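pinging the channel bc i need a second pair of eyes. not urgent but kinda urgent?? the chain im working w is below, pasted from the shared doc
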Amino acid sequence: MTMIQGDIWDHEAEALRIWLKHIEECAQELEIEFDAYEMEQAGESFQECQQLRILQDGSIKVKWEHTCWWADCKHPAFHGDYYCVLAHPKDVTWKSPYDLAIELSEASE
């Protein structure tokens, strides 16, 4: 697997790319024809599969997990798994929404 450098949006784009590639290859294998509208629906469903986890060591992990779009997929083990660790405990300072709003308000003055 290629290491992606960047922010959460770069990782989300890579997860989506991997998943769309799978469903295109699966459709070819199953001889399923689909159009741009079907692909758009698949992409929209992918937007709902993001999960945020805080690991025991305090790291922040984002995971995208989605099953194949096609019900007859011959690769049931494929779940469209992709994850990245975005922050480690030493890199994170937790702030309440109120404290962050005050800090941002003071910075803009």
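so The chain has three helices and three strands. and The chain has a mean pLDDT of 82. — does that match what u expected or am i reading it wrong
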